[in-house]
Amino acid sequence: xxxxxxxxxxxxxxxxxxxxxxxxxxxxxxxxxxxxxxxxxxxxxxxxxxxxxxxxxxxxxxxxxxxxxxxxxxxxxxxxxxxxxxxxxxxxxxxxxxxxxxxxxxxxxxxxxxxxxxxxxxxxxxxxxxxxxxxxxxxxxxxxxxxxxxxxxxxxxxxxxxxxxxxxxxxxxxxxxxxxxxxxxxxxxxxxxxxxxxxxxxxxxxxxxxxxxxxxxxxxxxxxxxxxxxxxxxxxxxxxxxxxxxxxxxxxxxxxxxxxxxxxxxxxxxxxxxxxxxxxxxxxxxxxxxxxxxxxxxxxxxxxxxxxxxxxxxxxxxxxxxxxxxxxxxxxxxxxxxxxxxxxxxxxxxxxxxxxxxxxxxxxxxxxxxxxxxxxxxxxxxxxxxxxxxxxxxxxxxxxxxxx
Length: 404
Known about the structure:
The protein has 18 helices and 2 strands. By secondary structure, it is mostly helical.
């Protein structure tokens, strides 16, 4: 039996857009966040089998608060990694922000909101100085950020050591953000309102791409949007079954959507990906590469400062021990596990959310089953190695096909 070209063409034309997108995903050399989402599902299923308390509303609420600091710092790291660079100072830079905030509020009795600006501003200065050395002088980011981490550690210890290495926070804002949840009714109102704004922006962008002939098709787009809405309803419903959405999570999601808008809907975002993909080609096409690099490090500094303040609010104290913990390693791992390529130019800020979920889920699940830290570190390291290996293999595939 033979099949002529006309029949084959007809079959291709009648193929559903969703099925066509699925086949492209399987054959693509850029899988995006599909692997990390699959890994997250497997992790949740395994831990739910090992401990039925893992997916209870109370534990999901705890998990949602645990991802905030790692996720915020992973957002910062994503901006730098998209350039094909690395920032090793985010751990201690976040401590600088918390230390400045605690000293000014507790000992100087300054108003809380100006102190929030000062704390974030301190880490912005760290990011700005590192960005200047990288973009203007050409010093490798690894060396610059390593030196920046040491300087930030010294500054943090100078502020915190005279007070025993930590300063308890006592202001009402930190207490509310770090310990309280939004009432269920307001959780629904704020979550649905935030999604409505997000959906409006996404639909507007989709329509613009369709007019230019670059869209992915209405069916695929609205299936994705509907899936996100279902996930939102399930997540908010689960959190409201306990105490509601944590303030920490709401602030993180606001930062996440703001970063998504910057990277996906602005000229700066497009240039950021272009510079990360090929800095020399971007320079020759008229992009101010130095400015993009400087801006990326500065934005990362602001996000690091936010992460430091959220961590201090969650713990109720600004502590130097945070800098010596694995906070920086977890943030870098979350960004990479979330699909951001270490080679630059590929990835999404949404990957910071899913990568942080993977890290926090492993930690939370191991704690529930009473596993030692040695096993937790081993599992997280294995997941990171798998993510980097997949990224490397896909890059090699793109190189062979001439797509890089």
